[in-house]
């Protein structure tokens, strides 16, 4: 048996990343697994990029508690880890008199959750956002809302975890648990232990077996499958709830606010929001589907999303759309732990009584991105409550080094950077002004970016008006050069998504 | 490669494609001493360098040349007459008072300034997002121009079995090129009831190679999570709605998009240049002067041309006028007459003109029609009830630019006109 770990974390989305980062401050040996070729590619990869205040979570739910606890943590996190975050505030916008009446209920809910909020008149809202639907009747202003770069936050937290000793393995898929007393054959020798399948001691993965005293389920969309393998909550089911989005050209549309509609029963509705990249984001709709990998955009979804956007900002123009994508929310069906609260879609954050060595998370849909740092803190509390000592490491470093982002620098800083490293002078993605220096830095980062999409998520390259048409051949060339590979091996998002098939006849001669 | 030491130029030209090369050469010939050409690529010539097919120069040189050869003639002339250039260099910003910030791995970070500028940044391709094709986002959905760069410049095949969406010129030319390379091009789909590129490309690139073209067809859905595995094609009606029951699954590993070009004007916007929402290019006068004094624009950055020869001609005009700003012999207060798109005309370039120009040289009005007319047509310029000029054409197609040249004899009528309404109507 190989040297066991103290803790294995399954899943490298924002929740897994915050857990890894938080646990890395303690003197424990951690293995962190992700089945994809990069971190942050599931629910983390495609969402509204918001830090919610917690105004509309169901009072008394774990979601409300985690959201409200986590919201104030983001300022310090972004300072320590150097990712983009801005406390912009947010508005829930009422269109017409009927919706205005609902703002009172929302205000009441915000108060129950301890979230500061105020109701503004339609007139004030029109002044604050000139592009809003002129039929706006009022708005709930939530000053503690914010916007974040979810990829940046995930990469930053993950990198900090890795630099503090967490061992990250990509392309490693969880298959099953290893139980105490289990032999190499997979059979449990029941004569040796009192309760078979009661204690987890490791996991089988696509890359071999790994042993640990604790396994943490942060598998996002697949969390139900993981917990079922542990024999926990067989009735729990994650329904992928798809949401489609439009990204608008920032040169054509400058919106300076986060605008929610009055919410529906199932979601916060289709927003129109500013992002930290300067583009306006429109979406998402909400559609329950079956396939946890189905991120198709659809004619119906696009039509619904567009209509939702127009309701808030009637001046949206289709010709200004520069990107379309869909994301999946891992929507669960766990009832609230407090039986007094009538809510059936709460987070699960628990050490189940029936299985030892297992920290179980589930239902990590919105506001899980916001809540991730509080969820991580709760995981620490649970482990401590279960007798883990968790001593702080003397060498723990909470800070993550920033890397230069050319487009964010002043002209003087740009000149100095180019003089110091000429690769920062070569612009590879011209719509977003991403330089070769930035790309190379990500390829050789503590968590190397080895695919086109990995570089895209980290640098924002290829997200602009030309959608990578100009940069793609150049990025493939840079990836091949830096990784010492043949360009034919370079892929968009891992094996099976290679760009190129062969050399041309003349080039092959 | 010249490493310039100057920081101030008479004329700076951005983009060394056919428009920029012609502009730089003409500026120098007309009295601008210090002319600098800036391009982001490693060589002069722009997108012509990846257009290794022939069909270039029939108007300009009365010869049928491949793109790189056409470019080389201008490159040679530019070098001979001493035009400076910065390659592998991108322009980050141009201010309205013509300060220019550039950066390059070999040229470093620079701040330059110019008395006059010519913008010739060309255009970019429309993408999947702009036509909102449903489905997942696998590898294997490329614009035709990206594929062209891979095949013709880098020497790699980005697929083996292709469907082309859009009958733009690059798409048809790539269909032939990929066939030469041993790939299978299953189909070219065009959502409109007519071709969007040149008829000659349909004959030479598709018909001659038995590549089927389906008009009024589009892609309903892309299939394949990691790599394209197939596309679902569908017929559309006159309102572009899918016709149920006409769906057809076409197995392929690559979808090439040739669905239109958009003038590239991010720098123009930063410089304060006003853009025409129809062309997506700057409003220009007959000398290709934009709304900002001293800044000219020429070529596909103004509107999308069908033939390189017209781009060269536009570059020459813009370069000459830029030199006149430097030498101080341009008309400071022109009494402009606006042009207007009339019946069956989508837009007219230039959007305004100085009638005095007609006393020196003719002015070509360039336009695209809205709908095809497969019969004899009249291209006419009117002002109210007054006919100012007209000419006949055998047909008019949206894929082919239509032009009408105003001459010295039209001077009086143009000068008196309130506006010049241009129409293309059945004869």
Would you kindly provide a written description of the structure presented here, covering whatever features stand out?
The complex is a heterodimer of chains A (509) and B (427). Chain A is 29% helix and 21% strand. With 509 residues, chain A is of the alpha+beta class. In chain A, a hairpin with a 5-residue loop joins strand 15 and strand 16. In chain A, helix 1 packs parallel to helix 9 and helix 2 packs across helix 9. Chain B is of the alpha/beta class and 427 residues long. In chain B, the strands form six sheets. In chain B, strands 1, 2, 3, 4, 5, 6 and 18 form a seven-stranded mixed beta sheet that branches. A five-stranded parallel beta sheet of chain B has the order 8-16-10-11-12. The relative contact order of chain B is 0.14. Chains A and B meet through strand 18, helix 10, helix 13, strand 23 and helix 14 of A and strand 5, strand 6, helix 3, helix 4 and strand 9 of B.
Any descriptors?
heterodimer, A: 509 residues, alpha+beta, nine-stranded mixed beta sheet, 14 helices, 23 strands, globular, B: alpha/beta, seven-stranded mixed beta sheet, five-stranded parallel beta sheet, 31% strand
């Amino acid at each position: 048996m190989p040297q066991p770990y103290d803790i294995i974390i399954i899943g490298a989305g924002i929740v897994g990343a915050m857990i890894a980062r938080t646990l890395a401050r303690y003197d424990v040996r951690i293995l962190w697994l992700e089945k994809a070729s990069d971190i942050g590619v599931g629910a983390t990869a495609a969402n509204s990029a918001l830090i919610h205040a917690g105004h509309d979570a169901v009072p008394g739910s774990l979601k409300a508690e985690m959201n409200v606890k986590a919201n104030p943590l983001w300022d310090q996190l972004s300072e320590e880890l150097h990712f983009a975050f801005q406390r912009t505030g947010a508005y829930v916008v009422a269109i017409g008199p009927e919706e205005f009446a609902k703002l009172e209920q929302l205000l009441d809910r915000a108060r129950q959750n301890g979230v500061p909020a105020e109701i503004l008149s339609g007139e004030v809202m029109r002044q604050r956002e000139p592009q809003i639907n002129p039929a706006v009747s009022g708005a709930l202003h939530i000053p503690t809302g914010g916007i974040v770069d979810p990829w940046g936050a995930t990469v930053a937290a993950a990198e900090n975890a890795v630099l503090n000793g967490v061992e990250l393995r990509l392309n490693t898929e969880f298959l099953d648990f290893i139980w105490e007393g289990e032999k190499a054959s997979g059979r449990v020798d029941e004569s040796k232990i009192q309760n078979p399948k009661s204690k987890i001691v490791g996991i089988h993965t696509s890359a071999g077996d790994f042993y640990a005293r604790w396994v943490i389920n942060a598998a996002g969309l697949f969390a139900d499958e993981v917990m079922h393998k542990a024999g926990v909550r067989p009735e729990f089911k994650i329904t992928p709830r798809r949401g489609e989005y439009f990204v608008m050209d920032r040169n054509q549309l400058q919106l300076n606010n986060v605008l929610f509609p009055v919410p529906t029963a199932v979601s916060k509705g289709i927003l129109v929001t500013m992002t930290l990249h300067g583009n306006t984001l429109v979406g998402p709709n909400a559609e329950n589907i079956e396939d946890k990998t189905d991120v198709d955009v659809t004619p119906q979804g696009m039509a619904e999303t567009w209509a939702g956007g127009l309701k808030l900002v009637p001046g949206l123009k289709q010709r200004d759309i520069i990107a379309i994508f869909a994301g999946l929310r891992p929507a669960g069906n766990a009832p609230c732990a407090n039986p007094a609260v009538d809510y059936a879609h709460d987070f699960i954050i628990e050490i189940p009584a029936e299985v030892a060595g297992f920290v179980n998370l589930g239902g990590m849909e919105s506001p899980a991105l916001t809540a991730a740092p509080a969820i991580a803190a709760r995981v620490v509390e649970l482990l401590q409550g279960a007798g883990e000592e968790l001593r702080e490491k003397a060498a723990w470093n909470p800070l993550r080094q920033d890397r230069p982002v050319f487009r964010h620098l002043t002209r003087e800083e740009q000149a100095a950077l180019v003089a110091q490293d000429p690769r920062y002078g070569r612009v590879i993605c011209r719509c977003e002004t991403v330089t070769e220096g930035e790309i190379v830095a990500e390829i050789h980062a503590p968590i190397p970016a080895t695919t086109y999409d990995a570089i895209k998520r980290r640098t924002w390259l290829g997200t602009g008006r030309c959608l990578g048409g100009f940069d793609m051949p150049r990025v493939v060339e840079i990836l091949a050069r830096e990784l010492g590979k043949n360009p034919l091996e370079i892929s968009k998002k891992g094996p099976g998504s290679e760009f190129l098939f062969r050399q041309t006849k003349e080039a092959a001669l | 490669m010249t490493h310039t030491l100057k920081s101030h130029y008479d004329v700076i030209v951005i983009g060394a494609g056919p428009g920029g090369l012609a502009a730089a050469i003409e500026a120098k010939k007309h009295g601008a001493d210090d002319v600098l050409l800036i391009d982001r690529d490693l060589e002069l010539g722009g997108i012509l360098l990846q257009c290794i097919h022939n069909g270039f120069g029939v108007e300009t040189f009365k010869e049928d040349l491949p793109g790189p050869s056409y470019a080389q003639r201008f490159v040679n002339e530019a070098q001979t007459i001493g035009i400076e250039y910065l390659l592998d260099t991108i322009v980050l910003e141009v201010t309205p008072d013509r300060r220019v910030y550039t950066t390059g791995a070999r040229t470093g970070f620079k701040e330059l300034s110019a008395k006059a500028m010519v913008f010739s940044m060309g255009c970019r391709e429309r993408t999947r997002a702009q036509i909102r094709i449903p489905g997942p986002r696998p590898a294997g959905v490329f614009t035709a121009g990206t594929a062209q760069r891979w095949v013709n410049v880098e020497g790699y095949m980005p697929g083996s079995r292709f469907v082309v969406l859009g009958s733009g010129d690059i798409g048809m030319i790539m269909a032939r090129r990929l066939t030469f390379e041993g790939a299978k091009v299953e189909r070219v789909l065009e959502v409109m009831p007519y071709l969007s590129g040149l008829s000659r490309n349909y004959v030479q690139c598709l018909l001659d190679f038995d590549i089927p073209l389906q008009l009024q067809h589009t892609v309903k859905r892309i299939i394949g999570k990691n790599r394209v595995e197939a596309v679902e094609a569908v017929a559309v009606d006159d309102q572009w709605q899918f016709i149920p029951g006409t769906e057809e699954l076409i197995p392929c590993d690559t979808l090439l998009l040739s669905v239109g070009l958009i003038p590239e004007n991010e720098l123009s916007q930063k410089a304060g240049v006003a853009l025409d929402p129809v062309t997506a290019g700057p409003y220009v006068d007959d000398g290709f002067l934009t709304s900002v004094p001293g800044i000219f624009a020429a070529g596909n950055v103004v509107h999308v041309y069908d033939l390189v020869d017209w781009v060269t001609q536009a570059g020459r005009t813009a370069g000459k006028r830029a030199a006149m700003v430097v030498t101080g012999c341009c008309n400071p207060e022109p009494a402009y007459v606006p042009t207007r798109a009339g019946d069956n005309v989508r837009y007219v370039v230039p959007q305004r003109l100085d009638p005095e120009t007609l006393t020196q040289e003719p002015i070509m009005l360039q336009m695209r029609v809205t709908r095809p007319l497969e019969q004899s047509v009249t291209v006419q310029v009117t002002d109210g009830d007054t006919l100012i000029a007209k000419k006949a054409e055998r047909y008019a197609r949206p894929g082919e630019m239509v032009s009408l040249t105003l001459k010295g004899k039209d001077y009086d009528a143009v000068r008196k006109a309130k506006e010049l309404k241009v129409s293309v109507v059945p004869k």
